[in-house]
Backbone:
């Protein structure tokens, strides 16, 4: 039985020796080809990083486009809502002013145009009337203004 135990021990020693030698061989091979393997791993890592970065940029661009669309849509809806609110407010104010007897903007503009037309007509009359007075040579007493206070004037 001692020889069986010795055989097992020898086989275990041989296996351990072979494992040790395989490890040393792998270590030696890695020393020789280690820099090549390292460079290959770095190259592969750069490729993966570029792909990942490109995918992230595309996703970010899509998200930005969506957000811009949402913001534009929200702005349009908000502007439409404010426009409606403004119209309602203007209509209510106009009705209230009308009830108080205030003239509308159109009525004020029409009155302004009439006043401007009347002023222009007066200027033309005054210009033609002044020319007639100098030609007629009115006496000095008639040209003097009256000292009496006329009703409706502010003296």
Residues:
């Amino acid at each position: 039985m001692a020889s069986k135990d010795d055989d097992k021990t020898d086989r275990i020693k041989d296996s351990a020796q072979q494992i040790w030698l395989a490890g040393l061989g792998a270590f030696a091979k890695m020393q020789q080809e280690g820099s090549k393997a390292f460079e290959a791993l770095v190259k592969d890592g750069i490729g993966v990083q570029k792909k990942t970065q490109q995918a992230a940029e595309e996703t970010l661009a899509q998200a930005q486009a969506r957000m811009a669309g949402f913001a534009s849509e929200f702005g349009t809806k908000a502007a439409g809502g404010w426009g409606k609110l403004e119209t309602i407010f203007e209509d209510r104010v106009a009705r209230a002013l009308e009830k108080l007897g205030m003239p509308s903007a159109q009525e004020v503009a029409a009155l302004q145009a009439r006043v401007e037309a009347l002023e222009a007509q007066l200027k033309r009359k005054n210009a033609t009337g002044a020319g007639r007075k100098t030609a007629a040579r009115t006496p000095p007493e008639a040209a003097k203004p009256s000292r009496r206070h006329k009703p409706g004037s502010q003296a």
Notes: Helices lie at 2-99, 105-136, 140-143. The first helix runs from residue 2 to 99.
